[in-house]
């Protein structure tokens, strides 16, 4: 079995839910004027702001300017005419009062305003200003669209903040109340929802984001378990709500891996440095070779489309160049792949990513029968820190490590917290269940030191069940592997994994024969481990 590389974004912890804006002031009506704050406060706010812009990844629109205002105004507001986000210094200080959650609170306020910009929430007011003599325009301006827009800004803003690692669970109601108190605002502001309604909206946005988090994490686990068709359903569900560059990229990688799964392993011996940072009829895999060829071609073309959308959203997003080049190399489009590699290398922000581009160059050289060049490139890539260089060197020189585990599984069935997965599979009872589409749902159940994720489709005919440890779990596997153990100890116990997948801060080692996987940190230590069951159809 080939070991495929993909990168999962470092955002698995939880979604964030954003605070409400306190003014949507296209004319700056409530602003007392601008007195710009510079120095440390602006630098901190700008860093969070830039993280959020990167998460959105939509560089087709003009980049808004962030201004921290020393004078007390509207807490946080978006000024469409000037394409500005105004954040009061006072609001900044309120966020700081939350200590370790200060950056999460700040991300919440800023993400909320950015969604108003990207979702064009000013069109009602703009239309009314430009057509002020029309009775229709006056009525339009007064429509109660604000509630919907505020809820959307919370929901999409939360996903935006979540995708770059800001966690604001539980802080939003406290932040909202504290800002009302700090600004001495009545609970019923003219023209705005009441504070009570705002708190309810925050709770509603939290619930939506928690559901989307479950979908996102389940999609990544399905990819780990090679359930590409099912993962595609989940990515498509997310794309209906949020079209960030990473989501398009991940959906493209999933399609590429599905295409590679249709290939004979002997025909694809090399490990492509794909980075993972839709329900489709294309995934109805058939056994007929001709149909497989057609499906493989369609899947690769779909992947190219997704990677191009990711690149359009952010032309500096290196994974979109690398992944698209991988697909072109699979299709033997050497010149086009080489062109993207050259462009992508200029976008790489670290040595490891640059090394992955070299790995792909080495694979292309090997596929074109230039073994000397391939070996040279793999060696250079290894020096750059690419973990996939040595693997492909082994393929090239026919000295790859065996991917088989130890001779026989240990006695007994692997369990976490002494919980039999078979019992849960027989009678699923998740704490939270999410319907993804008709006859497809996922869910999660929290235990003391672990979580179970379940995917069910077609009345249980297709399923995947994963239980994974969390920090502090003291238990060990049947072969005595636990949290904090070294990668060398893992390999001694279970052998060299047949499937290795890259994470942003390490990798995942999957042992299908044991129904086990291990997350490995960048320091080559076991961060967590999981047991799984999945349908064979």
Summed up:
This protein has 537 residues and is α+β, with helices and mostly antiparallel strands. It has 4 domains: 40-212, no CATH class; 226-347, no CATH class; 351-400, no CATH class; 421-534, no CATH class. It has 18 helices and 11 strands.
Task: Summarize the SSE layout with pairings.
Layout: H1 40-56, E1 65-69, E2 76-79, E3 84-88, H2 89-96, H3 102-118, H4 123-130, H5 135-141, H6 146-162, H7 172-182, H8 195-224, H9 228-239, H10 245-261, H11 289-313, H12 318-330, H13 334-347, H14 351-367, H15 371-383, H16 388-397, H17 421-426, E4 432-437, E5 440-446, E6 450-457, E7 462-469, H18 487-494, E8 499-503, E9 506-511, E10 516-521, E11 526-534
Parallel strand pairs: 1-3
Antiparallel strand pairs: 2-3, 4-5, 5-6, 6-7, 7-11, 8-9, 9-10, 10-11
Helix pairs in contact: 1-3, 2-3, 3-6, 4-5, 6-8, 7-8, 8-9, 9-10, 10-11, 10-12, 11-12, 12-13, 12-14, 13-14, 14-15, 14-16, 15-16
